[in-house]
Design brief:
Layout: H1 14-26, H2 58-71, H3 75-91, H4 117-126
Length: 127
């Protein structure tokens, strides 16, 4: 039989195994058991930290890894910071902003692409 050891390195001799078996047969007082936490610690004060997964393009993934390495931070930490800043910033902005209207005809201005968020913000900032 191969030599077996406990996680702490104690050699499991026949005598030790028998003593452990005897103890198990007598039963354990679970009120004296040490609680063991599994997984990563919670990021909040209480409860679990939900896992949020996102997909990004390869260029963004590489840029994120490079930034994390440069700042000696984890990718997750940078992502959490960016998400927190975005949510806080957008919470202060109105959720609905009227589109610039054409003065000559009804509807939006002819050169507005409603899918181009950056251009829309520029137009709205210009007034």
């Amino acid at each position: 039989m191969a030599t077996m050891r406990t996680r702490s390195g104690t050699k499991l001799t026949k005598k030790v195994v028998e003593a452990l078996a005897d103890e198990a047969e007598r039963g354990y007082d679970l009120t004296k058991a040490k609680r063991v936490a599994f997984g990563r610690p919670s990021l909040g004060d209480i409860g679990v930290s939900p896992r949020v997964q996102v997909r990004v393009d390869p260029e963004l993934a590489e840029a994120l890894k490079a930034r994390a390495k440069k700042e000696h931070r984890s990718v997750s930490e940078i992502a959490r910071t960016a998400l927190r800043e975005y949510v806080e910033r957008t919470a202060r902005e109105p959720s609905h902003v009227p589109l610039p209207q054409s003065k000559r005809r009804r509807g939006t201005q002819p050169d507005i692409d409603v899918a181009d968020g950056a251009r829309l913000r520029d137009l709205m900032d210009a007034g």
